[in-house]
Amino acid sequence: MTLALTGTGVMSGVAVGPAHLLIRSELEIQEYQVPDDAREQEVERFQSALGEARRHLQALADRLRRTAGSGAEEIIRTHLHMLDDAVIADDTESTILEQGCNAEWALQMQLEHIVAEFRSLDDEYIRSREEDVIQVVRLLQRTLSEAAEAGDAHESSLKLNGTIVVARELTPGDVALLSEQEVAGLVVARGSAHSHSAILARSLRLPMIVGIPSALRILQENEPLILDGHYGAVFATDDETIQRHYHQKQRKSRRYRLSLDQYREHDCITRDGIKVELQANAERGDEIAEALNCGIQAVGLYRSEFLFTQDQLPDEETQYGYYRKAVEHAGGKPVTIRTLDLGADKAWGPARQLISGSNPALGLRALRLCLRQPEMFREQLRAILRASADGPVRVLIPMLTHPAEMQSVRRILAQCREELDKRGQAYDSNLPVGGMIEVPAAAMAIDHFSESLDFLSLGTNDLIQYLLAADRVDDQVAHLYNPLHPAVIRLLGDALQSAAECGVPMAVCGELAGDARYTRLLLALGLRVFSMHPSYLLEVKRTIIETDVSVARQHLDSLPEQPDNLSPEQWLARLNGKLH
Ligand code: PEP
Ligand code: MG
After folding, report:
1. Would you identify the CATH topology of the domain 273-548?
2. Where in the chain is the domain with CATH 1.10.274.10?
3. Mutate which of 281, 340, 438 to test ligand 1's pocket (most atoms within 8 Å of Cβ)?
4. Using CA atoms, how far apart are residues 514 and 533, in angstroms rounded to an integer?
5. 329 pocket-lining for ligand 1 (C-beta < 6 Å)
6. CA of 438 to the centre of ligand 2 (A)
7. Alpha carbon nearest to ligand 1 atom 7, residue
8. What percent of the chain has pLDDT over 70?
9. CB of 547 sitting under 6 A from ligand 1
10. Which of 325, 417, 434, 453 is deepest in the core (most CB within 10 A)?
């Protein structure tokens, strides 16, 4: 017999294995009154749960940084910083002290208050992350209740290796832990394909399907399951023909990943002979090594935010140590170090104190923050300059909006050079300075920036969010965040053309550059430098090698006519032919 359940596939790929139902008892929230003289003690119990949850997430973030890269780590850090948000930490404490509620109850009241007030809260950051807030509060409540029932059997003690885990909901932390236990796939009753848990599953290459509300009710423990991430379907079946079909598909997909290895040594040249440069978005030594193995020409994006996660700002010496290491790992290839881009959804560590304003994505973020904190900015620029004496380095300025901002950057850079001269410390006096194009105004006025910049890097993650007014981390508007919107395609094409006319090389370093479905489109639009996470390099390289840009360009020219009333997605599929 075959039973098929459908939801939304988060990542294509096939998983086969026995079901493991992750049935967590719905957390029963204890509600009781705490006597006046025990309230301080209850606050201590709450503080200790906060500390425990913080340590748990911190350890997870550190591990993820090593195993899954900085993108995955950032997702956990988002939760880590929510733990310390006043709405959760301070207000819960006040409820315990003032109303005498036990900690779990006080948290529950706080959660209900946040959810009810979501639309009117002026903390934009919290407001946009309802699902995350619920997960963080649940983590705290579980930590409190597990401490009460010491020794509660934890899933980590079970053998989950090779199973397909079926759960009601999963936090990013759960996804990370399950991946460490080498589960084969995930089926989740709730959640969306754009949630942080889903993003994490994608970066861990873990097949996952979300949005099957009946999954836990219908599927049985240990029954053989097949998960088809492409179609968003789960099959519970003993039908041998279906099983054989999926085993074959699984082998094919494994073979495909292995076959990509042959492209490591290939030159990155299109069918019609156009040379394309590959760069990597990488910070860790092993990421840089993997990228070099795929034939990159440079580290195109070294995000420096991870250095700024503690409440203490990292000093020049600490930063220099990290940058120098990256330069060593890159073995003579240029390393593009981006100056601090804190703010908006990356509002952690010191940024929480430095940033105010009711609309963080449009407020003091990235360069705007650095120009407000010139001492902090100088310290970072001096560290980058010093690293440039150890090997080729380029500096990249995020969130450029006004051409005048570059004059300030140039002036501060000149001061930094003078300071290093006085100290007698070496640096590359021709250090290339680049700018990130991620604000639509900058994308439309490339010619006004080209004079003051040696290179450009277009960040599609932010450019799309600002162009379409759709928060890049808000699941509720994820359907609007569409790279195939005609305005996105037009702006990308215009910006690439404008950069070429000005003679300034432009890379794309947003997620789009690493998504092979968009490679042909970007080539047709004129992109010649792609920068991406190392795990995407070979698939993109293969797509480049198998593309005839002149044919892709003809296809692009047909876009406005929408032949046969194709949807943009169908149009893209036709452009890609049989490739993906
Ligand atoms: C981007 O915005 O596309 C980008 C690469 O920067 P980040 O994702 O770090 O904001
Ligand atoms: Mg950005």
Report:
1. TIM Barrel (3.20.20)
2. 36-146
3. 438
4. 7
5. no
6. 6
7. 461
8. 89
9. no
10. 453
Q: Is ligand 1 within 6 A of the CB of residue 74?
A: no
pLDDT surpassing 90 at residue 349: no
In this structure, whether the domain defined by 36-146 belongs to CATH 3.40.50.1450 is answered with no
**Positions marked catalytic:** 196, 509
The per-residue pLDDT for range 260-308, each reduced to its tens digit, is 999 999 999 999 999 999 999 998 887 899 899 999 999 999 999 888 8
Q: Which residues of 437-457 are buried (b: 16+ CB within 10 A; e: fewer)?
A: bbbbebbebbebbbebbebbb
pLDDT band at residue 198, thresholds of 50, 70 and 90? confident
pTM value is 0.69
Q: Whose CA is nearest to atom 6 of ligand 1?
A: 459
Instruction: Return the structure tokens found at 400.
Output: 């450029």
Is the distance from CB of 214 to CB of 4 less than 8 angstroms? no
> Which residue's CA is the closest to the ligand 1 atom numbered 1?
459
3-22+152-259: CATH number: 3.50.30.10
- Name the strand (E) or helix (H) holding 68: helix 39-68
In the chain, list all ranges with CATH 3.20.20.60: 273-548
